[in-house]
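Batch manifest line 254
LIGAND: heme C
JOB: complex structure
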Amino acid sequence: MTANTNRRAKRFYNCTLSEKFLYTSFLLLVGLGYLMAISYLYVTHVNNDKQPGLSVEDVANSYYGNRSGTRLEAAIRGSMAGNIDEADREVMVAWLKDGAEQEHFDKDIKPILQKNCLACHVQSSGMNLPDFSTYEGIHKLAEVDTGMSIASLLKLSHIHLFGISLLLFAVGSIFIQSEVNVWFKRTLVLSPMVAVFVDVLSWFLTKYDSHYAIVVIVAGGVLGGSMALQLLISLYQIWFLKKPEQADAVSETY
Ligand code: HEC
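JOB STATUS: finished
ARTIFACT:
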């Protein structure tokens, strides 16, 4: 036996029937899980921006949050707009989008409120309006949705990294027994692994900057697409790939 024949990659047509059953049933269950994952994604993200369909905004809203959704911002852009000038409004909106934290309230926001709002918005005005003289008073109208917490992101990412890489390892180990162009195969084995990494990384980036939502979607698409291809090619070739007449002519690369 030459070294070359020892290195010959295993192909589906060399598999026993038991192996074929094992591979097929596993791949079908993974395929089912894949469809469930997509449906889950759809039903959980689809209404985040109150528009039908899964959009970049939906993804941004779940990681970054919907930071424009406070009653306070609606008021200073709407019914209370006449009480505040453009520059002060911008400072307040920036503060809200930053999470409306107490730290910057005293320094930046309190003076604005004192100048523009406290004529009416204090207890003593007798108008029975929300009291803006303290952080607690304004906070009720400034509860910013900053998306998923770091703790839930960490939980979600480690489950994803362990789970999906293991899954890709199993699916990939089956898929490499298919007979396809070798560069295509190498790309298809590597791309979903890279995509999982980029996907998880971009969740954290989106938490800080909503523009990265597009990366979440692209990486998720690459992951899903390459996994689906591996699945379909494997399932097809397990049952329909014929052993070549001349066994030596087949590719000798893994
Ligand atoms: C001249 C009095 C007056 C001033 C000054 C004033 N407000 Fe108001 N504000 C009102 C009244 C009256 C209401 C209740 C009726 C309404 O919502 O229009 C109200 C309601 C609100 C609400 C509640 C809206 C809701 O969702 O229920 C917010 C928030 C608010 N004001 C913010 C501000 C801010 C911020 C400022 C300063 C930039 C300000 N207001 C200045 C009189 C005032």
